[in-house]
From TrEMBL:
It holds the Pfam family HNH. InterPro entries: HNH, HNH_nuc, NUMOD3. Residues 1-15, 27-43, 51-67 form the Nuclease associated modular domain. This is HNH endonuclease. It comes from the Bacteria. One of its GO terms (molecular function) is DNA binding. Coiled coil: none annotated. Residues 20-57 are annotated as: Disordered. Residues 99-153 form the HNH nuclease domain.
Amino acid sequence: MNHTEESRAKMSAAWVKRKETFVPPMKGKKMSDEARAKMSAAAKARPSNRLGKKHSEETRARIAEVTKERTARGENHYAYIDGRKARNQDVRRSTEYTAWRVAVFTRDNFTCQDCGDKRGGNLQAHHLKPFADFPELQLDVDNGLTLCEDCHEKRHLKQELVAKCRRKKHAPPQA
C-alpha cells in the first residue's frame, strides 16, 4: 500500500508525539514479594534448553569471527584517529612522563588530595587540564594532582557529566 506524502507526514508527526508522551505501563510500579517469588519459581521451572551443553570448537570459532567483523575496532570505528594511540603511548612511556608523575607525587607527599589516602600502589597522577586537549601542559607539574584510583574515577565521571550538561545547554533547539 502506497501512502501520499501528506499522509506520511501526518503519520510521522503522530509517531513523534506518541514517542514523546508514551510512558511504559509498569513504570514506577513495584512488584509485590509474592509476585516476584512466583516469577522466580516460573523461571526456575523451565531451565534453558542450552543448559549443560557446550558449543563445538567450530561453532565457537564462527561466533568469534562474526563478532570481530561486527565490532567497530581500529580503522572501522567511527572515532578512529590514525596514530593517536601510538602518540599517547610514546608520551606515557617516556622518561619525562615518569619523572612528571614522581614530581607530582612528591609535591603532594604521596597522598590523595581528595580523600587523604596514602596507599602507594593505589595512587595515580591526574591532569587538571586534559592530557589530549593541552599537549603543552602534559608534563607541567602544576597541571598534575595526586589522586587514589577511586577519587580519580569519580573526578573523571564528574567531568564527563559537566561536559554532557554543557553540550545539552548549548545544543541548538530541536524542531
